[in-house]
Amino acid sequence: KRTGYHYAAFDLTMLDKYDERLSEMIYEIISQPVFPPNELEIYIKKEKLEDAKFHLYKAYLLQPENQIFREALVKCLWDMEAYEELEEILNSIKNPSEKEEIFLGKLYFQKKDYQRAFEYLKKIFKLPDRDGETLLFLAWLYLYFNKEKEVIDISLKEAQNILSEEEFNKIIEKLGLELR
Q: What contacts 24+ positions apart, CB below 8 Å, involve 68-76?
């Protein structure tokens, strides 16, 4: 016949084993690849940005120097309008890539620190892949600082070619940009 004490000892032994197995399972989860290759792209296309953010943060925390993960996380945070988190990540990067510096410029633009935004955003001309939003910000900044009209026209035209008319107008309206 078993006593209550014996059952308690048995339960504690089992708890220790479960605790050990749980630790093993957590380690297995953490050490697995961050996400299946196409899963992140699916999350983003389906606008499941919270899910994408979760996986990207995991990747970033495991490999903070991995530029691909960082840039994807930065873009995701920008798209989610999580500006405080974005600023924290960008300020923690020791050697930001040009893409990360452009997001820093967008963040400064959002904060109305136009001089700093201008310094970072004009780096977009060095990149082969330009985004229409940055080009719109830059066109506005060139107008604001009374800079070269030709650059304004080129930036606006390229932004219109990249963005749909709806996206173009949405960005202008959202930020209260007046172009011309």
A: 69/34, 70/97, 70/100, 71/97, 71/99, 71/100, 72/40, 74/99, 74/100, 74/103, 75/103, 76/44, 76/49, 76/52
Q: Tell me the mean pLDDT in the region 119-127.
A: 92
* DSSP 8-state code for residue 36: -
Helix (H, G, I), strand (E, B) or coil at 47: coil
Tell me the whole-structure pTM to 2 decimals.
0.72
Please tell me the distance from the alpha carbon of residue 74 to that of residue 57, in angstroms, as a whole number: 10
Q: Within 13 Å of residue 70, how many CA atoms lie on the same side as its CB?
A: 22
Mean pLDDT of 73-85: 92
